[in-house]
What we know:
The chain has helices at 10-23, 34-42, 95-110, 124-132, 148-154; strands spanning 2-4, 49-54, 60-71, 76-86, 115-117. The chain is α+β, with helices and mostly antiparallel strands. The longest helix has 16 residues, at 95-110. The protein is globular.
Amino acid sequence: MIRSAVVSDVPVIHAMIRELAEYEKVPHEARATEEQLREALFGERPAAFAHLALTAEGEAVGFALWFLSFSTWRGVHGIYLEDLYVRPGVRGGGHGKALLRELARICVERGYERLEWSVLDWNVPAIDFYRSVGAVSMDEWTVNRLTDDALRKLGGAQ
């Protein structure tokens, strides 16, 4: 079962974000606090949204955290999936597909024309899963990112 996250889910989402960072071999990069997540998801001006995958007993076993994007070419919003995570013990049980299906449903319902995300090139199980649901890799695109000192330098706060 999939449901939208509620405020009381923030500690569970936070814990799964830490698990995801461990899996991706970058635990030091997962610096978001529960308070930051609470504000981003449920503050006065939410900047992100989350859905949880639940077992039949109601245990949260996965999450999708996403935000709106905008396509200048298509002239409409889309969804950018920041993170999709399913706990290792329940992978293969349909939870990841259910989360993606829910985001695709939202796109269709709202007239959004894209559901996009990135995946690490070494994460073959995830790549295979994404291909199985019809996702197409955008191999000609390279992700760029500014953080920390480079961001501050370019932004003028040296």
